[in-house]
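It is worth pausing here to work through a concrete case rather than discussing structure prediction in the abstract. The textbook approach is simple: state the sequence, then state the predicted structure, then interpret. We follow exactly that order.
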Amino acid sequence: MLRSPSACLAALLAAACSSTPAPVTEKDFAKRYEDTLCSQTVSKCCMQYSFVFDEALCRQNVQHDLAPASAGDAGYVFDEAQGGKCIAALEGILKSVDAQCVYSDAADMLGNVCESVWSKPGTVRYEPGSRMAGETCRHDEDCAAVTGKTVDCNGSCLVVAKVGAGEVCGTVSGERHDCSDGLECRCVKNSPLDPFCAQPQVDKCFARPMQGEACNGNCTGSWCNAVRVCAAYVAEGQACQQGKSDAIAKDFSNCAAGLYCDRSSSVCSKPKANMTACQTSGECQSNNCSGGRCLPDNLLASKDTCGG
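Step two, the predicted structure:
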C-alpha cells in the first residue's frame, strides 16, 4: 500500500516500538510523512550529489504514493498507532544519515512497519521476534531467532541450517538444510551432474568441481564454461564474457574477483569510483548506478526522493 525508503536501523525501529510513539491521525499522517521525507536533510543531500531538489514535486510524489490508501482503497482502514510507528521509523532513517548522506542498512524494516499503516479489517500483525518455527508470519523479522541458525518467513517461520558434505539437503524434519559454502545440493539417485532426478530422490551436499573438472553450473574458484568444464577466471585487461542482466553484469561475468566485464570493450576492468559515469550497477564499486553515475549504496538522495 505504501512505497517508502527501504531500510533503517533496527535499534531505531525497536526504540520506536518500545517507547510507543504517539498515534498519528489519518488526516495528519500524509502531511507528517511529507514534512519528514521532503525535509532540509534530504534537500542538503540532494544538493551534495547534484540532484535538483524540488520540494513541491517531492511532496507531490509522496501524495501520489499515499493517495490510493488514504482514499480507503478496497476497504483498507487506517491504524493511528501504526502510523505513529511509521513516522518515528522514517525520522530514525534521517537521524542515521552520515556525512556522505548514506543511511544504515542494519535492517530492512521500515517498509514492514509502514505497509501496515493501512490494512483490511481483521489483518493480523506480529511483533518482531514473536513467531515460533512453523507459525504463520508476514516478514522474516516476525520470527524468533534460533541460536546458530537463521530463520526465514515463507508464510510460516522456517529454520534454516547449514550442513556439510555428504549430508542431506533440502527440507529435513521441518527445517531447510542449505549446503555450506563451497558445496552444492545435488541429487544422488542418478549421475551427480544430472540436475533432473526421478522421484523419489535424495539430495546431498557435494563439493563443487575444481578447475579442469566437468561441471553443470557452479565451480570452486573458477567458472563453468560453454563446454561444461571449470575454467580459470579472466584477469584485468583480458577479453571476457558477461551475462544478459543489465543491473548486475558483474555477477554474471567470468572476470576475476574485484573486476567486472566492461560491456563496451568486453574486457575485464576495475569497478568505477563514486561520481563516475556508468551504465549498469555492476560497473560501480558501490554496485549502485543511478542517473548515469556511480553513487554510494543506500544513498538518501535520488531522482525520486529529490523530486527533480
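Step three, interpretation. The CA atoms of residues 216 and 228 lie 6 Å apart. The radius of gyration is 24 Å.
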